[in-house]
Amino acid sequence: MENIAHLMSELPKDYEEECIKQGAIVRRRGVSNPADLMMLAMFHLQNGCSLVEMSEVARITKLGNMSDVAFMKRFEKCGNWFKSINQKLASSCLIDYQKSEWLERKTVIAVDASDVAEKGRSGRIYRLHFALDIFKMISIEYKITTAKVGESICNFTLQPGYLVIADRAYANIKGIEHCNKNNAEYIFRLRKNSFTVRNEEGKKIDLGAIFAKLTSGECADLSVLATNLDGDKIPVRICAKRKTPEAIEQTKKKLRRKESKNQCVISEEAKTFNEYIVVATNLNDTISADEILETYRLRWQVEIYFKRLKSILNYGELPKRRHDSVIAWLNGKLMIALLIEIIISKAAFPPQEYA
C-alpha cells in the first residue's frame, strides 16, 4: 500500500470532490470516502486481484466492507472518475526537453494506437488512441474505442501550432485534410500505396524511379499533388532518404517474416520503396528535408510509451467482461501510467535515441 500512497500523492487536489461529482460514490455504503475507494481501486489495478480477493483486501485493510459483487459494481462506476483525473494529469507539464530552434513555437505530437484484448471466449478488442507531446512527455489527448474504430488522425482534436507525427497507418488524404482544416502541421510516414502522387499537369509521378537516383546521404524533396479515387488534389511535400545498409537488411527480414506470417507476397516495388524513409508534410521549404526526416525519428517515443503500458502495467490484456468494467479498467491503468510519468519526470532525464 505504500507504493499506492506514493502514486496517490500525485493525484489532482480535487480528486475526492471529483469522485462525488462523477458518481463513483453516491451512497457511502461499503466504502466511506473517495480516498479509500481510490486505494482499493489502485490495488486492484496494480495487482489484478479477483473480486473475491478484493473483498477480503477491503476487510483486512479496513478500507471497506463489501462483497465481491458490491466491489465490482463500485469499480464499474469509477470509469468516468478515472477519465476526469486523466484529463487533468494529461494537461500538466511533466518534462520540458530542449527543442531544435525551428520547433520552439510548435507543440510536437506523436500519435499511435494500441489494441487491448479481453480475456475469455468473447475475445473483444478495445483500442487506445493516444497523442503524446514528445517534448513535455504528456498526453495531449486519448480515446478508448472498440476495434471497429480505425487508426486515424481524425480521432484527435487538432489546433494551430500542433506538429503531428504519425506512422504509415495515418498517412491518407482524410488525415491530411483534417490537419489542413485545423491549421495543424504534420509529418506522416508513407507507404507505397498511401495515395497517388501527381505533378501540376496531372501526370502520375514514379517516386521509386526518383528515389533510385539518390546518392548516399542525399535527400529527395518534392512538391507534388496527393490524389485519391475521388479526384481530390492536395498540395503535399514529400521528403525521402535511403536507409543505411544495416537498416535495409533489417527491413528485408521484417518483410520476409510478414510474408511468412500472413501467407502473402509483397511486391518487389513495395520492398524497394521500404528501403527509404519517405514522409509527407505540409511544412514550408524554410525547413530542410534533413530536419523534417530527423524530426520524424522522434515518433518512437510514443511506441516506447505503449511498450511500458503493456509490459509494466499489463495493459495488453483485459481481465474484465462487462463493458463498464472494461472502460474503468482501461482508464484506471492509464491513470496509473500517467502518475508514474509524473514521478519519473521529477528525476529529469533526456530521452535516448531509438535504435
Word description of this protein:
- This protein has helices at 2-8, 15-21, 34-47, 51-61, 68-76, 79-90, 173-181, 207-211, 245-262, 268-273, 289-296, 300-312, 323-345; strands at residues 107-118, 125-133, 138-146, 162-166, 185-189, 196-198, 219-227, 233-242, 276-281, 317-318.
- The protein is α/β, with parallel strands linked by helices and 355 residues long.
- The protein has a domain at 2-89 and 318-345.
- Strands 1, 2, 3, 4, 5, 6, 7, 8, 9 and 10 form a ten-stranded mixed sheet that branches.
- Strand 7 (219-227) and strand 8 form a beta hairpin.
Secondary structure layout plus pairing:
Blueprint: H1 2-8, H2 15-21, H3 34-47, H4 51-61, H5 68-76, H6 79-90, E1 107-118, E2 125-133, E3 138-146, E4 162-166, H7 173-181, E5 185-189, E6 196-198, H8 207-211, E7 219-227, E8 233-242, H9 245-262, H10 268-273, E9 276-281, H11 289-296, H12 300-312, E10 317-318, H13 323-345
Parallel strand pairs: 1-4, 1-10, 4-5
Antiparallel strand pairs: 1-2, 2-3, 5-9, 6-7, 7-8, 8-9
